[in-house]
């Protein structure tokens, strides 16, 4: 089996290792990662076969629950600021969920929404949870965000319990310890998390102009500086006039978790994928894992991740800026 878009892949998928213990979707192991069956059966092959990249596309990549919603909001508001100034009362982010403003590449093709994706104005901002090694060929700039594995684990577990209800799966009995054990074994959606991160980290070192690697914790500490870095990388840096008017700060304020939580569509609505919009908004802080996990559990996660990262050159404890070459103030 050479690639997930070979003829008959959907039937051959049944031969791949299966994991059913991490709800809400059954997972299959492919190319070293545990991917949802529906992604393997339709989303991935459709995206790789039918995606027509444009030179100015921006692809937002992340492991699930690593700051994806915030990254989508920031990137969308930045790329579309000419048509939608952050101060506009009818700004799309004041009326719609960020996930409906920035579509997931694989899901769009799996739902046969190729025409909608093709109709998006340039520069298109799209998103994916796919590992770097499984991205469609021909993509241009990729912005990747990573997050502390312990916070990712807790956020994934809580999100899973909420989303399971939306898709009719009972996950109430799915404990955090069970989730932790599967996470440490790499058997979670798009896992192993550390391999997902390491692939993008290596790509950012190898081709810094093509992949921007961001750390969620750094973005929390300096959101405006991180946004400037991202805007420059995306090819739409803030002009001196925009800086004087405080446009970057206005975008950060528009996309703050507190502001997004208050949008009616995010309180009561559902995303295009049918998931309750409020499931995407929790605390958004760093270190909240300690409110849910024991120190022993945290140590187990750290050890599993450190072991998995050996030889990669990446460490979650490294305080070195992820992208010094793109720091406007450097």
Molecular structure report:
The chain has a single domain, classed as 3-Layer(aba) Sandwich (Rossmann fold), CATH 3.40.50.300. It has 330 residues and is an alpha/beta fold. It has a 4-stranded parallel sheet with strand order 5-4-6-7, sandwiched between helices. It has helices spanning 9-12, 37-50, 68-79, 98-101, 105-110, 114-119, 149-166, 176-184, 193-206, 216-221, 223-234, 240-245, 247-254, 257-262, 264-268, 295-309, and strands at residues 18-19, 27-30, 33-36, 58-62, 125-128, 141-146, 211-215. The protein starts with 8 loop residues before the first helix and ends in a 21-residue tail after the last helix. The protein contains 16 helices and 7 strands. A hairpin with a 7-residue loop joins strand 1 and strand 2 (27-30). Mean pLDDT is 86; it is low at 1-7 and 319-330. Helices cover 44% and strands 9% of the residues. The chain is globular. Helix 3 packs across helix 11. Its EC number is 2.8.2.-. Residues 55-312 form the Sulfotransferase domain. Pfam families: Sulfotransfer_1. This is Sulfotransferase. One of its GO terms (molecular function) is sulfotransferase activity.
Unreliable stretches (pLDDT < 50, length at least 5) are 1-7, 319-330
Report helical residue fraction. 40-55%
Strand count, sense and barrel status of the largest sheet are: 4 strands, parallel
CATH fold call = Rossmann fold
Number of domains: 1
User: What is the CATH superfamily label?
Assistant: P-loop containing nucleotide triphosphate hydrolases
Strand order of the largest sheet: 5-4-6-7
Give the ordered list of helices and strands: HEEEHEHHHHEEHHHEHHHHHHH
Distance between the termini: 47 Å
Number of helices: 16
CATH C-level: Alpha Beta
- Structural class of the secondary structure composition? alpha/beta
Percent of sequence in beta strands: 5-15%
What is the number of beta strands? 7
Average pLDDT value? 86
């Amino acid at each position: 089996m050479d690639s997930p878009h070979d003829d008959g892949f959907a039937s051959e998928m049944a031969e791949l290792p299966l994991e059913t213990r991490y709800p809400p979707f059954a997972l299959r192991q492919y190319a070293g990662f545990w991917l949802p069956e529906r992604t393997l059966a339709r989303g991935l092959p459709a995206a790789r076969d039918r995606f027509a990249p444009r030179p100015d596309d921006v692809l937002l990549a992340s492991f699930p629950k690593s700051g994806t919603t915030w990254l989508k909001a920031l990137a969308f508001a930045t790329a579309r600021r000419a048509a939608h100034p952050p101060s506009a009362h009818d700004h799309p982010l004041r009326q719609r969920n960020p996930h409906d403003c920035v579509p997931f590449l694989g899901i769009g093709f799996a739902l046969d929404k190729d025409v909608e994706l093709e109709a998006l104005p340039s520069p298109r901002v799209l998103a994916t949870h796919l590992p770097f090694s499984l991205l469609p060929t021909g993509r241009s700039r990729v912005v990747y965000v990573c997050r502390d594995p312990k916070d990712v684990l807790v956020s994934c577990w809580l999100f899973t319990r909420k989303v399971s209800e939306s898709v009719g799966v009972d996950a109430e009995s799915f404990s955090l310890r069970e989730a932790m054990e599967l996470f440490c074994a790499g058997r979670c959606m798009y896992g192993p998390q550390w391999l997902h991160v390491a692939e993008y980290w290596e790509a950012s070192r190898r081709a810094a102009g093509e992949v921007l690697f961001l750390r969620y914790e750094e973005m929390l500490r300096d959101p405006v500086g991180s946004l400037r870095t991202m805007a420059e990388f995306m090819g739409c840096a803030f002009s001196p006039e925009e800086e004087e008017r405080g446009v970057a700060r206005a975008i950060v304020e528009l996309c703050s978790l507190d502001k997004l939580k208050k949008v009616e569509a995010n309180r009561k609505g559902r995303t295009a994928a049918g998931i309750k919009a409020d499931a995407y908004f929790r605390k958004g802080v760093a270190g909240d894992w300690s409110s849910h996990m024991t120190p022993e559990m945290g140590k187990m996660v750290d050890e599993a991740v450190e072991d998995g990262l050996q030889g990669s050159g990446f460490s979650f404890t490294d305080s070195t800026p992820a992208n010094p070459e793109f720091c406007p103030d450097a």
